[in-house]
Amino acid sequence: MRRSVLATILFGSALALIACDDGGGDGETAADAAVSGMGGAPGMGGAPGMGGAPGMGGAPGMGGAPGMGGAPGMGGAPAAACGDDVDLLDINAAATADGDALVFTGTTAAEDAFAGSCSSQAAGSDAVLRFTAPAAGTWVFSTMGTAFDTLLFALRDCEDGFSEFGCNNDVSREENTSRLLLTLEAGETVFLVVDHFDGFGADPFTLTVEPVTSEPPVIDDIAAFFNPEVGSFGVRLEGTNPGGPITRFRLGLIDASGNALQLSQDGNEVELAFDESPPFTVTADADGRFVAEGSAALLQRVIIRTVTFQVGDDVGLWSNQVMAQTSPPMEVRARGERCDPLGALDLCSAEDACLDRDEDETFTCESTTAPSLASASAFYNAETGVFAVRLAGTDPDDDVAGLNLLFLDAEGAAVPLGAEDGPVGL
Are 17 and 46 in contact (CB under 8 A)? Predict the structure, then answer.
């Protein structure tokens, strides 16, 4: 069961309503390579599945090896054509080799023939490309280097829109090219659609296909915290990733009743980049060890009991998902030490506060003294309804940020000006 309202999360000092992430296809795994036609029964004299040649070698023809268009067995390709009006491009035949990668450059058609599930747009012109995996493994498909905003999705059968098994809109909020990771068997054929996110035009694009040789990240340890006084939560974790830098994370929250909070439009997890979500940070050493930590606050008053977390690297590989029960922050930082401004990971002493004195986004525990008012004057123009105040006082910390005003009428009764009775903060 999950809560039916979106949770609004406060990351540091920036308020963000976490909406759906549009990278929904990464890490999808292809299922069976062969999809037999008409129940998979071979024609008269047709060879059984294992005898079928992979990829372009399979000859379906009338009366050919597999009957009625049936695809050959392990390694067989789906139908070679994508319809009379679609120009099917072949990556294996036309791409340029660049080390282990294949780089295909082409131009989209001016018409819209396909639609991916991870786009909110109704239409955009596209191109469809066939790829047959020369070896079993995980393959990364990327439109990096394409000038327009792309959408990339994969189909098992390009004449069947319901055969989609991977779709990605943007790599990140700042990068509007697309990337898919697909695990394929040797000889398995997939159809990649490079689509405009929005718009029509015969525009040049680049699609790079490369085998993934690195291992996914591994989270070894995690600790989670919750500060009920401010409604903030935090995580601190460490792990290994020799294959590349950690760039993204997936976060889930579970309340005291065991309900997963809905953090995105599509579900109970939110996916974000570390460099887009301060104060969530990740650091790594030369041996591939990394430490990640961060905190955020819920504007809704919800008790967080469990946090789930995953990290992803720049290739698009994701770690194991880990979860941890929250505990109150116990570590008290000394004066001058770095601290968590949301009070989830750690605290300052009662005499100090977590401040960014130099306004460089570095928060440290600093001594604080409350400001003192020496005089106050108030003015009111009954004709215009305008009021004014003049205050004088001292503040050793020189960091006065606001004031509270309480308005009284002629009889001395409080005048409610906000949503609730009481002082108004300015």
Answer: no
**What are the pLDDT digits (tens) for 153-184?**
898 988 777 788 888 887 776 778 888 889 99
Alpha-carbon separation of residue 136 from 30, 33, 187, 190, 264 (angstroms): 11, 11, 8, 13, 34
- How many residues in the chain? 426
Name the pairing type of β-strands 289-298 and 8-11: antiparallel
Q: Is the pLDDT of residue 290 over 80?
A: yes
H or E stretch at 92: helix 91-94
Cβ(138)–Cβ(212) under 8 Å? yes
Cα torsion through 102, 107, 111, 115, rounded to 10: 30
The helix (H) or strand (E) run that includes residue 262 is: strand 260-262
**What phi, psi does 56 have (nearest 5°)?**
-65, -20
Q: Is-contact 318 250, C-beta < 8 A? A: yes
What the block records as the tokens of 255 is: 């309340």
Which amino acid appears at position 129 of this protein? L
Instruction: Kindly give the pairing relationship between strand 404-405 and strand 332-333.
Output: unpaired
Please give the DSSP secondary-structure letter assigned to residue 94. Answer: H
Integer Cα distance of 113 and 57 in angstroms:
27
Structure-token pair, residue 225: 């915290």
Q: Full-prediction pTM beyond 0.90?
A: no
Band of pLDDT at residue 271, cut at 50, 70 and 90: confident
Which residue is listed with tokens 């980049």?
A: 273
